[in-house]
Amino acid sequence: MQEDLLAYVPTLEALQGRVILVTGAAAGLGKAIAMACAQYGATVVMLDKEMRRAEDTYDAIVNAGYPEPAIYPLDMQGANAKDYADLAENLREQMGRLDGLVLNAAWLGSFTPIAHYDAELWAKMIMVNLHANFLLTHACLPLLSASPDPAIVFADHESNKAFYGAFGVAKAGMRAFCDILAAEHSDSGHFIRVNSVDTGPVRTSMRTLNFPGENPNSVARPEALVAPFLYFLGADAGQRSGEKLVLPRQPADLQWAGEAVSA
Q: Does the keyword Oxidoreductase apply (predicted)?
């Protein structure tokens, strides 16, 4: 069962020596994924525009004794193709490799019916949630292709619903993008493991902002939902690619066994 991946706990050195780039790594689910990747041996590159929060995550990783991460400041709303090409070149020069890419960053500006959607807001939402992911992935594909066990994992969210607007369209586009990437990199000569994970509701600031009537403490913590990402990033996932993991809403008190190991 797909839900079994929530209980997955890798060996302590499962990601040892790997370089993993996580977008939106300063807070929320991205921070939890970055922390967990570092816990299991990876050198994490945290891409985010929120430098103060990214520095807090950096400190938390270093203070825990995990491999020292790197911070790459970038605003995905305004970055262009050259910015992403520069990022990939910096990774090549500074890290020498890239083994994993977690496309987690997202922005939901508002719930708005299509008839009332502001065109500028639409363009910004498509840029952050879809086009920027293409630019980043396109720039990083040569590095990933050189890795002995490359992986791309996309943080999905079911959004083909009324009032989700550009966010819903972008997420649908990302699902198609993941399908295309998985198909194009399925042969042994060009294999890249490409999967998506929809955790269901997560206790993040973005969810609190967009669901003000919901008690945040009724939603599962991001730290409890990282296991599927670790699984698809590591060698245990083998040739599993092109999968869309969709989890039902999890209880607010959900615990992940990997947290107990690190405590």
A: yes
